[in-house]
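Good morning N.,

You mentioned wanting to compare the apo and holo forms, so I went ahead and generated the holo version with zinc ion. This is what I fed in:
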Amino acid sequence: MTDTAALFEQTAAHDIPAEHPLSRSEGVRIDATLALLPPGVETALDVGCGPGTLLHRLPVPRAYGTDLGWRGLRNVQRPAVRSSILRLPFADASVDLVTCCEVLEHLPPADVAAAVAELCRVARRAVLVTVPYREQLLESSHRCPRCGTEFHLHGHQQSLDEASILPLFPVDARLTVQRVWKVRPYSPALLRLRTRGLGLWKHGRHTLCPSCGNTEFENHEGRLLYKLFGALNHLRHPRRSQDNWLLVRADLAGGEP
Ligand SMILES: [Zn+2]
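and this is what came out, ligand included:
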C-alpha cells in the first residue's frame, strides 16, 4: 500500500460528503477546472475522484470515477470503481475527457510519467490535470515524535510545475496551461529553522506516520514561537505572491468532436 493509500484508508481524511462546503482556494480551483473543460463532452472519467468533490460537479451526462481507496468511494454518487491510476479498467480512447485533479503529487516520482500515459490512453479528446504548483513540501510536513520519520501531512511525495508535467503529454497534444490562486511563500531558511531546527511543525487533522502508523501528534500551531515565525515570514512576504495551483489541459491529436 502506498503512503497515500494508507492515509486515505486508515484515517478519516476522505470521510467527507462530496458536497462539503469548499474552502475559497478549493472553490477557485474547481471553478477554474470546470471553466477549462472542452465543450460538448459526453463522457468523462475522474481519476483519483476521492469522495467525488469534482466528479459530482462535472456537467457531463455520463461521468465515472475511479480511486485507489474504498473510503472516499463510499461517498461517491456517480458510477465509480476502485483501481490504480497505473491500470485503469477502461479501454483505449473510451471516454471523451479524463480528469485527474490533485493526484499526481501523491505518487512516487518514478510513477508519474506512466500515470499520465495511462490517462492519455483512456481519453479520446482531452486530459485535464491539476496539481499544487511548486509546493513547499516542508511547509505541510511533520516529524513523527515516535520514530523520527519526516513526512508530508497529505502524503504528497513531490513538488510539480510545468517543467515536470508538460513533457509527459504526447508531443502532438495541444496544451493549455493556467495557474490560479495566490499564497504567501514561506522563506526556506525560516521554515527549516522552525521545523527541523526547533521542532515546530504544521498540524493536520488526519495525520498518520507512514513508517510506524502513529496517529498521536501534538498541535504546535498555537505556540507563541510558531506564531512568531509566521509573523516574521509575513514581514518578509507581505503579499501572496506564489501561484498555488497548476492546471493543464491536453487536447489530444485526432480527438476533435
Ligand atoms: Zn512514526
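The pocket of zinc ion is lined by residues 144, 146-147, 149, 209, 211-212, 214 (CB under 6 Å).

Happy to go through it together on a call whenever suits you.

Best,
F.
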